[in-house]
Amino acid sequence: FEPTLGIVFVQPKNPNFFKQAKTYRAPIKATGKRLPYSLWLQDHPAPLIFIVPGVGSHRLTDSTVALAEMVFRNGFHAAIVSNALNWEFLEDASSIDVPGYPPADAREVYAALGSIHDDLERRFPGRMTAHALLGLSLGGLHALWIAAQQSRHDERELRFDRFVAIDPPTDMVHALRQIDAYYNAPMAWPAAERVPRMQETLLKAVTLTQGNLTPSSSIPFNQTEAQFLIGLYFRYILRDIIYLSPVRRRVPDLPHGFGGLSRQRIYNRIMRYSYME
User: Fold this and answer.
1) Distance CA 51, CA 84 (A)
2) Can you spell out the DSSP letters for 74-100?
3) Between vectors from CA 163 to CA 151 and to CA 235, what angle results, nearest 5°?
4) Which helix (H) or strand (E) holds 162?
5) Rounded to an integer, what distance in angstroms lies between the CA atom of residue 119 and that of residue 114?
6) 175-180: which pairs have CB atoms within 8 A and are 24 or more residues apart?
7) Cβ of 122: how many Cβ atoms within 10 Å?
8) Sign of the four-CA dihedral 104, 105, 110, 111
9) What pLDDT digit, counting tens, does each position of 120-167 carry?
């Protein structure tokens, strides 16, 4: 099956591990709001690993919590912040009009991590003995940007001793074109069959998520169905980005202030836009 679907198998070994996290909020100077973050704290001084998840992911998605569990089991503190394109980060920590440009997003992620670091030092002085940054997918790309720029930052700001980037995209334009192509994969089906087969794919996905998945499980999707599910997932992320960010004011199909439209009608209009558009 499409390898990207393998992310569904990345889950915490302890299904209740996420409940062990404490949620705190760090003040964000650029927005005047407070950004939530999740913390797993050792009962002794230890290095702290910040984790930044993949595109649009929330800090408590299974794959992200699984990374925190791995980190915590190996004796580190773990702190997670939502991805720069997640609704939580967009609402509380983003101050730019058009999110999605990695250098700008990485600067905002770095500023947010600095605020979280300061918040932790106030709450738990002396408990953090070193700092590392672990990023997954787009979070990995942001980690690499931060690594490249760290030497230019003020010495008084947060400094990372180590960086780990897991599967960062190497060509953003190519990645976005692939996502758009995946979303349009059902166009390969005959027109008369297209809608029923899309509905069947979604029903299979819902049914699958209600069972117990393991890496040995059989995933009942062919290549086209798997690509469609991946493309649809990313299109929903794009929908939320446009809905939550000031860029919506420049979308020609959306009246300024949404003109009293219902959220569903707004969503329907936004869903017409691809990543390349």
Assistant:
1) 12
2) TT-EEEE---TTSHHHHHHT---SSTT
3) 105
4) strand 162-166
5) 9
6) 176/275, 176/276, 177/275, 177/276, 179/230, 179/231, 179/234, 179/235, 179/275, 180/231, 180/274, 180/275, 180/276
7) 9
8) positive
9) 999 999 999 999 999 999 999 999 999 998 877 776 788 999 999 999
pLDDT at position 243 is 84
Report percent pLDDT > 90 for the chain. 64
- Residue 120's contacts (CB-CB under 8 Å, 6 or more residues apart) are 24, 39, 48, 79, 127, 128
Among candidate residues 58, 59, 78, 82, the one with its CA nearest the CA of residue 69: 78
Q: Is the C-alpha dihedral spanning 120, 124, 125, 129 positive or negative?
A: negative
Six-digit token pair at 2? 């499409």
Query: Is the pLDDT confidence value at 246 over 80?
Result: no
Of 230, 203, 212, nearest to 1 by C-alpha is 230
The predicted-structure confidence for 182-213, as pLDDT tens digits, reads as follows 999 999 999 999 999 999 999 988 887 776 65
DSSP 8-state symbol, 271: T
pTM: 0.86
Residue predicted with more confidence, 92 or 9: 92
pLDDT(45) > 90: yes
Q: Is 128 helix (H, G, I), strand (E, B) or coil?
A: strand
For residues 120 and 242, give the distance between their C-alpha atoms in angstroms, rounded to a whole number. Answer: 32
C-alpha span between 65 and 123 (Å, rounded) = 22
What would you measure as the largest C-alpha separation in the chain, in angstroms? 65
User: Rg of the chain's alpha carbons, rounded to an integer?
Assistant: 20
d(CA 110, CA 115): 9
